[in-house]
Every structure is written in C-alpha cells, then in structure tokens.
Amino acid sequence: MTADNEIDIKEAFQRAQKGHNNKAKLVASLKSRYNKLEDKTQFHEEFVHYLKYAMIVYRREPAVENVMEFVARFSTCFQSAPKAEEEEQQEDLSNNKIACLFFCFFTFQSHKVSSHAVRFRSCQLINKLLGSMAENAQIDDDLFDQIHQAMLVRVTDKFPNVRIQAALAMTRLQQPKDPDCPTINAYLLILENDSNAEVRRAVLSCIAMSPRTLPKVIKRTRDIKENVRKLAYQVLADKVHIKALTIAQRVSLLQQGLRDTSEAVRELVCSRLLPAWLLRLDGNIIELLHRLDVENCAETALDMLKAIFKATLPEELQQNKVQLDSRRLIPVDSLSCENVLYWRALCEFIKAKGDDGEEMLEQVLPDAATYADYLYGYLKSVPVLSEEQRADFNQLELVMTKEFISQQLIHLIGCLDTKEEGGRKRVLSVLQEMLGLPQTPPSLVFLLTEKLLSLIPDDHRCIQTVAEIISEVREPITGSSQPVDENESRRQQVQLAEVKVRILEAKQTLEECISAQDFTRAAKIKDSITELEKQRDQILQEIEESSQGDDKEAHTEKNDPETLLRCLTMCAELLKQLSMKTRSGPTISALMSSLVLPSIANAHPAVRNMAVVCLGTCTLHSKEVAKTHLVLLLQIAQLDEVKIRISALRAIIDLLLLFGFQLLSEAAATQAAPSSQSPDRQEVEVAATEQKADVPEDGAQSVLVMLSEFLDSEVSDLRTETAEGLAKLMYTGRISSAKIFSRLVLLWYNPVTEDDTRLRHCLGVFFQLYARESRVHQEVVEESFLPTVRTLMNAPATSPLAEVDINNVVELLVELTRPSALIKPSPNTGVCVHDYLAVRMCGEMLKDATAPEVRLYAKTLSNLELSSDETVRTDLQTLLQQLVQVVKDRVCLRALEKIISQLADLKEQAEILSPPRPKEEESRAGGRSRLRRGNGSVDTTVFERPSGSYISLVFLSDGENVPESLPVMRPSRRAKTAALEKTKLDLNPLIFQEANVS
C-alpha cells in the first residue's frame, strides 16, 4: 500500500466502501495527493470515473452509502481550516474547481438521465455536499441558481426516493423571509399534494418555520399516516414557540394529539410537545392553562393535565398543588378558571389511583361537610342578571366565569369521601336546596341533578327525591295575609253554639224514642244528628282557618318557560340515570302526565325539545309507554323545528334498536284500540288521537320511507342524524336492505356532503365494519352493486352525482365484498359473494353489449376473487364465451379473454392438485354453487335518485379490522445474517474491471 500522503483514487474508493475505515484519514490522504498535483484535470476525470460505479446503484447498499459519504466529505474538506490570506485564496480557487466540477457534472448531466438510480444518487450527493459545508460557506450565485433549478425539477420526479433527496438538498436554499421563495413554494406544494408519506416527512424535517409555513405544518398533524403526524408534532415541539401559535391552534393540536388513534403519536405529544411548552413557560402549568382558554376547552385541558400528571412524580404532584388555605380550600377571592380546573384535575387524577392515592387526596381536599358549605356559599354568590344587565358584555362575562367555576366545583363532589353519613347528608342537602332555588343558573341544573343521583344508590329513592324537588320548584308555597273580621267571627261562634244546642236536644229526643221503642222516628233523628255534626265540624274548620290569619299558605303552579325547562332538565337526567331494568311507576307516570306531555305543546322551542327528550327516554323504560307515544314521536320528527325533530328522530332510532320494527305494528294496534286515558291526558294528545286511523298497516315501510326522505333533506344535521341511525339499524341487524345501503353509498360520495365531516366519518367506518362482519352483510352490499352503478350512470349532467367517479365507487364495493376481508371467514367454502357479482355483471353485459358501462364491468371482473368451485368456473366460462361473441369493444374483449385464460389456468391447476370426489359430493357441490339466490328479506329496489347538489372521495383502507395472515416460521438470526451478507454489494470487481466511460 502506498503512503497516506500518496494514496491513489482507486484505493481510496476501495477503502471507503468499508464502514470501519476512518473517512477523515482517507480524505486527508487524498487531499494531500490532490494539493501536490499541478494539473488537476486528470484527477477530476479519474475521480468521476470511479464515482460512476456507485452512481448506478439504486439500492441503499452500505458500501455505496459509504462511498457517497466519502465523496461529500472530500469535496468540502477545503473549507475546514483557516489559512493565511494567500493560501486561503489558493484553497478557495481549488475548492471552486472541485465544487464546479461536481456540482455542474451531477446537476446538469446526471440529474436528467433516464436511470432513476443515477437521478437518485445525484440528488443524494448534492444533498450531502451542501449539508457538509460550513455554516458560513458561500457559493457562486450562478451555481446556486443552477442547483436550485435542478432540484426544483427533481422534486417532481416520479420516484419517491429521488424526490426525498431533492427536497433534502434544497434545505439550505430556503429563504423564509422571501414571500416568493421557490423552495418554500415547492415544499408547500409537496406537503399538500405528494402521495408518498416519506416525501412529506422529508419536507417536514427540513422546512423552515415562518408564518407562511406554520399552518401547513400544523395541517400535517392530521395526516393519514402515523409517521407524518408524529414528525409534525416533533417539529412543532422543537421549532415553534407556544406564543407563535394562536389559542385555536394550541387547543386543536392538543385535542387531536392527545386523542390520536396512534399510541406513538399520543406518546410523543406527552413526552415532547407538552414539556417543550412548559419549558418555554418556566414550568408554570397555570400559565399554560391560561393560554388555552379553558372556559371553552375544558375537556382538552383536562386531558392535557392528566398527561402532565402521568409524567410527574408523586412527590412533585404534592409540591405543585394549588395554593390551599388551612381548610384545604382555595380562598373564594383567589378562585379562577385556571386554578379551579387544575384543582379538579389533580383531585380526579389522585382519586383514580384508588387506595394508593387516598392519603394524598386528603391533603388536597377537605371533608365532605366542609366542602358542601364552601360550595353552597359560592353557588349562592352567583348573580342572576336581568334583561338589561345581559346586554352588558362585562356583566355577562363575569357571570359566565362564575358559572364555569361553579361547574368545576360541582364536579369535585365526585372526589369527596361520602362514606361518612353526616358528610353525605350535608352534601345531599346542599344539592337539593340548590336545585330548589330559583336563583340557581339553568346551566348548573343538569350537573347538580347528576351529582345528586350519584349519591343515592336506590332508583326508587332517586325518583322520589327528584319528584319532590320538581314539585317544590313547580308549585312553591306562598303565604297570604288576610285581616280577621270580628263580626264574621262572632257570627261563626253564634252558629256553633246553635248547632251544639240542637245536637244536645236531638240526642235527648233520640233517647226518649228508644225508650218508647219508636224505632222509625229514632232512625230519622239519628240521621239529623249526623247532619248537625257535619255542620259543627265545618264551622270549626272555618273558625280555625280564619284564626290562622297571616299563617295561611297557598300552592300556585308556575308554567313559565324557565321553570318548565328547569323541571324538564331534572326529569331528563333522572330518566337517563335510571337503570333499564327500572320500569315506569306511578311517580314517573305522574311526571309524564303533569309535566312532560303538556310541555310538548308549549310555545317555547327549548321547552318542547327537552320534553321530547324526556318522552323519548321514558319510552325506553317501558314498551307499553313506547307503543302509546310512538306515533306522537313520528309526528314530531316530521312537523316541528329542526332541533326538536332531531331529538324525536334519535328517540325513534333508539326505540327501533331496542324493541325492533315489530314495535310499529304493536303501536298501530294500540292506537287503534279504544282509549282509556283520563280526559286531561286525551286533551294533551289530541294531535295523536285524531290521526289514529291514518297509521298504515305496514308501519316499518312507512318509517323507512320517512327516513329515506330525511336523507334528501337540505338540513345537514337532520341528514347526518338519519344516516347515522340507518347505519346503526343495519349494523345491528334490524334492517337488511340493499336499497338503503345503496342510498348511504351515494350519500357518502355526494358532493353535497363534502363539508359534513361527521357524516363522512360515520359512513366511512360503517361501510368497513358492516361488510367485514359477516357474509350476509356482504350479500347485501353485492345486491346494492348494480342499483348503485345504474343510479350513477343515469345521473343527468345537472345532478351532483354526475361528478362522482364511478370507478371509485365500484372499487369500494368490490373491496367491501372480498371474501378475504371477512373478520370471521364463512364456513361455506363453495360459492362466494364475488361469484354472484360476476354472474350479475355478465348478465348486465349480455343485455346490452354496447352500453357504456360494459367496459367498466369488464375491468371489474378482473379484480374479483372468484372461488375455486368447478361449477362456478364452468358457468362463468360459458357466460364469458357468450360475451366474447357479442362484445365489439377491443378493450373489453382483451379484458374478457384475459379472464377466460385465468379461469382455464385455475381449472387445470385444480385438476392437478385436487383428487377426484365421489358422485354424491359432486352433486351436493353442484347444488350449493348455483349462482341464483332468492331476494329473501333483502330489498333491492332502487331509490329515486336524490335531488340537490352532492364529494367524490377515494376509498382508502386504514388497515383496521384486516384479518391477520397465517403465522410464518421466522428464520434464525444466524440464517438472516448469512442472507444479509450475500446481498451486500461490493464495488471492487466493478472498479477493477475496465469501464467504458466514453
């Protein structure tokens, strides 16, 4: 081997392939040789000659990667050490020659060649060259522009790896302050449109942060790929200060990151993003909460605090607790939205530890009785604003803040130790009193009722307690003072004396008649004595009432909207908290007749809505009540305001899920029977009783027609609620209809629902879960295939459905019906769903061989998973042979001939591999594989095409619920190592071989 200062280029490249060699020593040796040369042209040509061997290798071989690293380090080694002025000029001149050679050669010759390997290595080399330069390095402006233009072309390359290296190479070419920087424009375009996740990750790793790029990086936190989302959060944690984000952006990042479907993303948010924010705020959690606006994002703030507490040691939890006084309470004057939320989150986190956190909880929370008095005092201090005060924004904001604090204090009741009877009774007393006070804000009624019911274990006692509170709120006791009339009092005393005298006289006469045995007269006198005694008692009662004076009380019923809404809220929460096994008793029936049903006819929309919620919840506890009021709910779902219609629709869906569609026929029978209700109740349900005769015999059909009409509604909320309800009914098996499934598919693809995120998400999840659940469900999807395609093909140009990509829809339906997609494969290994689908499409093609959808069907046939059943293949081959005779389109013919050849190959393989079967089995198999199936309960009638404008959405499988492949025997570590060594590439044979560089 030659000396280090005389090492030649070939040997340098040979040694550079080995990872254990010292690259710095090789670079120094080759640099020493280079500096001694007067004419460096031959060196450049020889250097490039040996570099070409590495340039043609696309795979990420270790030897090639080492060579590229060596080339980059050698090309930039001339800027490493400071020199004298003359020497520095000479070094810069040499460096410029090297740089120009490599940059010009690889940028303007290599990056445009047809070989994707050379393009990839060219971009990689430029990336390494620019990355290896010093921070204060400078290059010529013309060279900068040429590199820039070349990489802008390569970031649009069709190979993802080339685009990745080109994007990385432009890292140091960015100019964040330039609003028209072409590099940043290219980066933003890649983040928005590039289909490869690794390319998007590469751009995220090198893009400079600026007000222009920040929203695009935040958007990548919602990327479809887990690795991209993870890197986006990491970039935000490392490069972006919390003050650079708006409140909405902070809340959105936490809300999505802490609830991400990927555990790795959630872990990164907890371990990188939150600590980075806290570090920039000096570890002040209260300040972090202040920057989140906790009043409008309490749940997100609680999730964030829980994540912080999980990463905090128990000792630090006690040190970082809120400032409590000697009673372990936050002073009322110091209460704020941030510290009370922190107090609640801390107590709930410690409470969740169970027995391990009991001692710590005692240090941050007082006993139940003390806290009850504290809560009572604060709730009573919440002011009640008049109409004039509500117009003052400052007053309204103050009340809203106090209500938020009150809500968090009420939530803390769940952390109290209520095992001690005295403390528990005190808490119950406070809750009951606050619910009965008219000054209690309406926003707290629901929460107070929930906490009250959670402290009462018995359902019947819960019903009785809430009924008493509702009675007190609805019919409060009022006192009335009336002056006592002395003349009236004297007259009553005289009447009393007269009656008493007459009673004594009558009794004496009665004794005389009995002695004389005049029993007839005695009976008459006895009756008169009874009447006189009644008069005496009546006079005594009047005297007693008049003597009470100021102590007289009266019950007045309140029917104002605020009182009714408060009572209905308590009733609704009671019905929700009751166990499903608890049936409606007399108390619930009384509440229904006196409160809920009259409120359905109330003029105030909020009152009607809450009454419908109560009615719908009550019907879930009793089938008899459901049958009685189902027609009323159906009428409300069609006639009232949108919000109330949605509440009624939810109740109807819940009833159908619980009791099934037979409830409709039973309800029709109940409505047709003679009514035995009280007159008051009949007056309340006049609208329902007037239309008893209008209930159709087929109730299920009428309800489905109503729901299908709701799918065409212009109100997005009603449309979404209906689609979600139908999806639930189909998934649970209450409905099995290809017609409805077709409607849901069309609704999912309809451009009208483009902005309806909830609808899109619901249906997207439903399609996959429903089709993969069972073969029966796949048969429903298969039945909907042709109606869906016909609807789209026949859509007029003015319809939004004309914009839908039919190929996309067909791909979705084919994927949903794949036999391999079933979570639990069907035990029937004969005819599969795709076999039926293939025969249906062949039949449609035979009807009209010139129809425009024939080419679509021919293409789809090649994507089906056909079974290996002999009879199926024979039948399909027969049909395909007939199609070949009638179809004239060349594209269709090629597709059909390809399928025929595939079926023939499968048949030959099956004959070779399969042993002959007995005749009995063949007959059974033939009977089983007949490609005809009765409609059964599946409705295949096509709905009318919806009117109105409708997004075409590409079906992307997220990998959920995919059946796992069969376990494969893993090779040993030694075998894998040996196989890896065999695949390693050695460039030495190529270098020693004469290369034609011309």
TrEMBL record:
Question: Which residues does the UniProt record annotate as the domain UVR?
Answer: 500-535
Q: Which GO terms describe its cellular component?
A: condensed chromosome; condensin complex; cytoplasm
Q: Does the keyword Ribosomal protein apply?
A: no
- Record GO biological process: cell division; mitotic chromosome condensation
Q: Could you list this entry's UniProt keywords, alphabetically sorted.
A: Cell cycle, Cell division, Chromosome, Coiled coil, DNA condensation, Mitosis
Q: What are the subcellular locations of this protein?
A: Chromosome
SUPFAM superfamilies (alphabetical): ARM repeat
Show the coiled coil region(s).
Answer: 522-549
* Domain of life, source organism: Eukaryota
Q: Residues annotated as region Disordered?
A: 672-694, 912-943
Is the keyword Cell cycle in the record? yes
Task: State where it is primarily located.
Answer: nucleus
- Similarity section: Belongs to the CND3 (condensin subunit 3) family.
Put simply, this protein is called: Non-SMC condensin I complex, subunit G
